[in-house]
Amino acid sequence: MVPVYIVTGLLDSGKTTFIKDTLLKQDWIEEGVTVLIRCEAGDEEFDPLFLEENEIELVDIEDEDDYNEAFLQEIEDGCNPDQVIIEFNGMWNFENFANTDYPKEWAIGGVYSTINGETLEMYLKNMRNMVMEQLSDSEFIVVNRCGEDVDRGAFRRALKVQNPTTQVLFEKPDGSIIPPDEEELPFDFEGNKVVLGDEDFGAWYVDAFDNPQRYENKEITYLAQAYRPKGMDAHMFVPGRLIMTCCADDIRFYGYPCKSKDKLSFNPGDWVKVTARFGFGFVTPQGEERPLLELIKIKSAKPAKDEVVYLR
Amino acid sequence: MTKIDIISGFLGAGKTTFIKKLIDEVYKGEKLVLIENEFGEIGIDSGFLKDSGVEITEMNSGCICCTLVGDFAKSLKEVLDTYHPDRVIIEPSGVGKLSDVVKAIQDVEEDMVIESKVAVVDGKKAKLYIKNFGEFFINQVETADTIVVSRSQELSEEKLKECIELLREKNGDASIITTPWEELKKESILHAFEEDTNQESLLEDEHHNHEHHHEGCCCGHHDHEEHHHHHGEGECCGHHEHHHHHNHDADEVFTSWGVETPAKYNVEELEAVIKTLADSTLYGTVLRGKGIVQSQEGDWKQFDLVPGEWEIREGSPDYTGRICIIGTDLKEDELKKVFHA
Q: Which interval of the chain is the signal sequence (chain A) (predicted)?
């Protein structure tokens, strides 16, 4: 199999530097011919000598419409690569790109992304879905040149909701790594009882996914809407909220399942104030283990001022 | 009738700074409304707007998949009905097409007219953006009738010229403002804006000979007296109904050659060229020449010439360097060369 490594990110986010300093250096790449497909021609260039020494073939593609199955097959036939790196153009439609089939010999080896922290907040405010869409398949995301203005916690949580298994790394402008524990949560999780504000559900949901041990056996109290998916036992329900990660199109209901001693009946979407003990033991149909809540208290409640929780 | 200015440009290009300049210097005294569909690096603080008497309407869409162009029409209609302003400045989303915004606005049936379609382009990034951004960015450059280059002072003359050439490839008609913004005066900005409203007639005339009693070329002149001339002048100035009536009487056929250029001139070399133009027929029979250009020292030089007479004096910055030569049998390629245009 020919592994394909994909690097996404907007112009000037540091894709080429990532390819040079990480992908091509640290034994990531096997011996043999590497084809580097560049969908974008940024500031950083490759030294021809370096390319030659490392058996790297550059293939530049400018027009989005030219990127298709035939184009990739031609590369397979013409270069017979041992591995492929694709530098994505951050302004292209990511869905079309991701839906383009690779030659049958190829298989995705990894998807990585780079982000320029200097422009992140501005880009998020104005073209959020363009920034976010191309990060949806990434297993590793580096946010470089990160200043104080970047709300790292909020951005990490937004990424996590979109793609729970992604790893996010923040770097300071000097290139040093910012430890994740410096991110602030909008609520206090230190005591045995954690009470969430009406807008904090999204932040808690994501943090509990990443750091479940932080909440083990604690009592969590929050405002939620109650739903019971089809087929779920009458002793179980999901107290959760509608979360918006990008825009109105991607509002979805999120929550952890909760079991109760008694059978519960309610109308879908009823607003409730729940207190539940955080634990483990829920297994999804896909076999993944998820947190499981145990109901302590529930009562009906007034709807939240804003039905939707934002991860911004 | 309400005038509409649309200030487009990619994120970080400097739209907000340019708009501030427009509000503060160019449109002072007008009843203004600003419609923003973008949240820039620099917010326009409400104090500034209050002092300027500007109403501000924010369109809270934030992400382009939710940014319906239709919203513009709606916001604009509301603004016009509520405030009856002299002018509305619109800052659309930086990743949208300017032509879409123009179309949406044209569909609004109100008493208004689009006066300026501006694209603000970061001079340092134009090349990269043209190459990699594709449609929306190129659409902004193509649709604009004035292109404002930001951060031009941070570019070498050579890079700036390269940038202008790339922009020219996409848009041959627009006036391109290359002068650093700190030096830009109200008159120069208005001049650049004005030019574009007449681009069509300008183009029509470009390679034609026309009958004429050119009294001069308005390049770089903004005082009252010169303004009067406007209506009787060469194509570099962009106005002039009478150019539509070409007179093909061979005896009176003049050509005019005009150019916009960000080039910085060596004053001695410029003098030599002007002198040659005035005193010889090396570049054709020159009847009249006028220009305002930047010197290598950074100040601006204005020149005038008629056969046998020429003058170079200090000038005030225009939006870019501009030259206009009128005569017969002008050797345009040669002129281009000597003026480094």
A: none
